[in-house]
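User: My collaborator sent over this chain with a note saying "see what the structure looks like." That's all I know about it. Can you take a look?
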Amino acid sequence: MDSVKKNPSSSSATEKLTKILRNREYVKRSTERKKAYYEHLESENKKLKIIIANADLIHKQLLNVHLQLTPEQNQFLINLKNDTFKQETELTKQFTQIQSTLSTRLVGEALRQTGDDTYINNYMSEMHISMGNLRAMEEIMQKADGLRAITLDKIHNRFIKKQFAMALLAISAYLNRITTLSYMWISRPKS
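Assistant: Without extra context I'll predict from the sequence alone. Here is the result:
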């Protein structure tokens, strides 16, 4: 009977070794799955970039065919796009800076609350400054709305009515395609 009994330390060591080997195999398979998934995502990302590039190209060719732009009108659109982009970038920069300042002030003030008269005076001063920042943010939003209106007005004045209407339809179709691509990407099957 003694020969039938196994050595307890040998059995325990064998079980540990088996468990370690199973864990290594699991980690290896898991790593391979993650690598395959990452490669799949990279592939899908490349496909989407190609689709978007093609959509941009088609959009420009829709635009040029349907609008029948003259070279001067085409150059006008390029210049308008560049000018508008610069202005939008500047407005976004200003808005972000004010928003950051406002957040920092409000969080900083909340951390300094003491309850005495000094706090109340500081609070009123900070509130006044914060209200000024909010007014500045509102002015930036109004400037952005004005920029959109001015841009559309410039296009309207430069093109005949049919071209302007076709441009608005082309822009709408382009935005719908981009939205559809976004929804397709979000709702794609997760493997």
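A starting point for your reply to your collaborator: The helical segments are 8-67, 71-111, 117-158, 161-186.
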